[in-house]
C-alpha cells in the first residue's frame, strides 16, 4: 500500500536515484507516483529504463512547473552550486502551501535560505541522508524549517525511515550529521579497503579478505547498535592482555587513528560550509 502521494525529484543523480530506489523498494511510492527532473537526459532515460520512472522532464522552468503542478512533495537533490538558479525558477510557480512541501537534501544550505528565496510559499524540511539507503541501511537526520508542521516532519521521518534509521535533530546540528553519516560511508569504505589490502599482503585472496573486512565492519556496527555498549568497552573486551589485538590497537594509536578520523569529520563540515557559503 503506497502513501497515495506524489513525489518529485529535482536532480536525479547519485542521491536522487538512491532515494528513488529505496522508496520503490519500500513500497511507499509506486513508480507512477514518482517524478524526476534532471539536467542530463541520459540520467532520465536511465531512470525510465531501469526504475520505470516515466514522469520525467528536462531541467528549466517548464520541467520544474511540471513537477510542482503534479507533486505533493518536491525533493531538492541537486548540488548546492546550482540551487540558487533553480530557486530563481521555482519562486514564481504556483505552489499550494496547504498541500505541498519541499524536502531539501542539499548539503550546507539551511531551510531559511530556501524559504526566503521561495518567499515562504512552501514549507521546507531538510534531510541529510546517506547512500546506504540503497540497501535499506541508511542513516538520516531530519530538521523542519520555520513553517514546516509536525505533520511534514513526521511524513519525512516516515519516508526516510523506510530507507534506514532517522533522527529528528535541531537544524543547527544538521551539517554535523552530514559530516558523520553523509560523508562517513567513504571513510568506512577506505577502512574496508585498507583491511582487505592488509589481508592480501598476508596471502589471503582479495575476495575473501574484502568480505572478511566488510562483514567485520557490519558485525561490529551491529554490536554497537544492538548492545548499546560503549565502543571503547567493546574494544577492551576483544583486547586480551599481551595479545595480538592490543598490538594492532597500539599501531593505530601511533598512526593517530582516532584523532585523524575526528579531524576528517570536522574537515567535512568545514568544507561543506565553504561550498554552501559560495552557493548563496
Ligand atoms: N552523496 C552523498 O552521500 C550525500 C549525502 C547527503 C546529501 N547529499 C547532497 O545531495 C545533493 C546531490 O548530491 P549527488 O551526489 O546526488 O549529486 P549528483 O550525483 O551530481 O546529482 C545531481 C544531479 O542533478 C542534475 N542537475 C544539475 N543541474 C540541475 C538543474 N538545474 N535541474 C535539475 N537537475 C540538475 C545533475 O546533472 P549533471 O550531472 O548533468 O549536472 C545530476 O544528475 C548534494 O547537494 C549533496 O550535498 C549528498
Automatic annotation (TrEMBL):
<dbReference type="Pfam" id="PF03807">
    <property type="entry name" value="F420_oxidored"/>
</dbReference>
<keyword id="KW-0963">Cytoplasm</keyword>
<keyword id="KW-0521">NADP</keyword>
<keyword id="KW-0560">Oxidoreductase</keyword>
<dbReference type="InterPro" id="IPR028939">
    <property type="entry name" value="P5C_Rdtase_cat_N"/>
</dbReference>
<keyword id="KW-0641">Proline biosynthesis</keyword>
<dbReference type="InterPro" id="IPR008927">
    <property type="entry name" value="6-PGluconate_DH-like_C_sf"/>
</dbReference>
<feature type="domain" description="Pyrroline-5-carboxylate reductase dimerisation">
    <location>
        <begin position="171"/>
        <end position="274"/>
    </location>
</feature>
<dbReference type="InterPro" id="IPR053790">
    <property type="entry name" value="P5CR-like_CS"/>
</dbReference>
<feature type="domain" description="Pyrroline-5-carboxylate reductase catalytic N-terminal">
    <location>
        <begin position="6"/>
        <end position="106"/>
    </location>
</feature>
<dbReference type="InterPro" id="IPR029036">
    <property type="entry name" value="P5CR_dimer"/>
</dbReference>
<dbReference type="GO" id="GO:0004735">
    <property type="term" value="F:pyrroline-5-carboxylate reductase activity"/>
</dbReference>
<comment type="function">
    <text>Catalyzes the reduction of 1-pyrroline-5-carboxylate (PCA) to L-proline.</text>
</comment>
<comment type="pathway">
    <text>Amino-acid biosynthesis; L-proline biosynthesis; L-proline from L-glutamate 5-semialdehyde: step 1/1.</text>
</comment>
<dbReference type="Pfam" id="PF14748">
    <property type="entry name" value="P5CR_dimer"/>
</dbReference>
<dbReference type="InterPro" id="IPR036291">
    <property type="entry name" value="NAD(P)-bd_dom_sf"/>
</dbReference>
<protein>
    <recommendedName>
        <fullName>Pyrroline-5-carboxylate reductase</fullName>
        <ecNumber>1.5.1.2</ecNumber>
    </recommendedName>
</protein>
<dbReference type="InterPro" id="IPR000304">
    <property type="entry name" value="Pyrroline-COOH_reductase"/>
</dbReference>
<comment type="similarity">
    <text>Belongs to the pyrroline-5-carboxylate reductase family.</text>
</comment>
<keyword id="KW-0028">Amino-acid biosynthesis</keyword>
